[in-house]
Amino acid sequence: MKLHVDRIKKMYAVNAEAIKNIYSYSLPGIYDQKLSRAFEQWKAEAINVSTLQEGDKVIVFCCGSGNDFPHILNKIGEKGKILGVDFSSQMLNLARQKIVQGGWSNVELIEADVTKFKNIPNTPFDAGVCTLGMSIIPEYQKAYHNLLAHVKSGGEIIIGDIQLIAGWRLFLNSRIIYRAKEFGGSYKGHQNSRQIFAMMEKQLSHIRKQHFYNNAYVYCVGRKR
Ligand SMILES: C[S@@+](CC[C@H](N)C(=O)[O-])C[C@H]1O[C@@H](n2cnc3c(N)ncnc32)[C@H](O)[C@@H]1O
To answer: Which of 6, 9, 122, 146 to pair with 181, CA 20 to 30 A apart?
Structure first.
């Protein structure tokens, strides 16, 4: 078992510059086609169990090509607003295409690093969303606390991500990390997202958590105290 863990630990480490390169050069052209369809259902479910409602303002960290936007817009309607943040201008261009195609005049995008981003003016959002982002950010705790800082007390935090599988199914990690590494996935990153979910359960209230695919994908929704 130890040999197995040592082997998968070596399968790529999280590195911010490498991640930015992946999402600036190799992935944008193929991202949406490559992303497993299963994520769509899991993303939609997380948004559906949230208390997002018509007119809400939502900040989306690591919004990428905007795959979460339709699910969020279904809940917040035309009166709501989305601010998508991502550090890859190429991924944001894909999101921009969806915004034009969908005729979404209430979605704004900002190119920035979510570990450092500060929204000005500093009016808090009703909810913060991040899917498939935290597990590839080396400074994931900074990103998580920054997401929290942008959401009002009583507002909702919605995070979905791949996490390291524990227990007897641990052997599945190597296959999952092998497939995720093209997207910046790594042993450390998947361990980090476990930490995020543990932090959410400790710090937030009204937790709703769901596991999929042998516990490898989790969404967690909670309310900021
Ligand atoms: C796997 S994609 C997820 C995109 C989208 N949330 C989705 O589920 O389809 C990860 C995204 O995170 C962005 N990203 C990674 N680290 C970031 C950082 N520190 N600041 C801003 N964006 C980041 C990448 O550019 C990429 O678009």
So the answer is: 146
DSSP β-bridge partners for residue 222: 157
Pocket (CB within 6 angstroms of ligand 1): 19, 23, 35, 62-65, 67-68, 86-88, 91, 113-115, 131-133, 136-137, 183
Cα–ligand 1 centroid distance for 3 (angstroms): 31
pLDDT digits (tens, 9 = 90+) for 166-202: 888 888 999 999 999 999 999 999 999 999 999 999 9
Q: Name the residue at shortest CA distance from atom 19 of ligand 1.
A: 113
Q: What's the 209 CA to ligand 1 centre distance in angstroms?
A: 22
**CA atoms of 225 and 134, how far apart (whole Å):** 21
Residue whose Cα lies nearest atom 18 of ligand 1: it is 113
Q: What is the pLDDT of residues 109-131, one digit of tens each?
A: 999 999 999 998 878 999 999 99
Q: Domain of residue 42: give its range.
A: 2-223
The pTM (predicted TM-score) of the whole model is: 0.94
Domain total of the chain: 1
Sheet-wide strand order for 217-223: 107-111, 81-86, 57-61, 125-131, 151-162, 217-223, 205-212
Average pLDDT over residues 5-25: 76
* CATH assignment of the domain containing 121: 3.40.50.150
